[in-house]
Amino acid sequence: MRKMTSLLSTIVLVIACPGVSSADVQINMQAGSQCWSYQGLDTRFYGNFAGGQALTVAVVEQQLNEKGGMEAVAHNGEQVWVNGPDGFLKSGYREERDRIVYTDKPGRYIFNLYEHGTGGAYPVFVKICASKKDQTNKK
Fold this sequence. Notes:
Layout: H1 2-13, E1 25-26, E2 35-40, E3 44-49, E4 53-64, E5 70-76, E6 81-84, E7 88-90, E8 100-103, E9 107-112, E10 124-132
Parallel strand pairs: 1-3
Antiparallel strand pairs: 2-10, 3-9, 4-5, 4-8, 4-10, 6-7, 6-9
């Protein structure tokens, strides 16, 4: 709960910039780090990952609500589209319990918050973490 509060606090601090971004953002994890984070308008990210990793994705988006106000919406990776080597695809319409992305092969993986297009009108906060795949829960 504390991490989610921290994520929500971070997105609230992001100032909305006018316009829509259209550039992809490269995922560059610092040496020794398991996680990478991003704040901004982009919604499409790419990076190279080793085979046998378990990737988790956390997203906090700022959206208009039905009353015309803004609200922060948080979700895990089950709503993120992921493409990878050899036709690898994880749909953004997965069940909530299907939020870990397992990299069976090394290569470039692309994370897209939306099925089509890139960039949003409001800021997002994205955190992607990589760890070794648990051999006892091999999928």
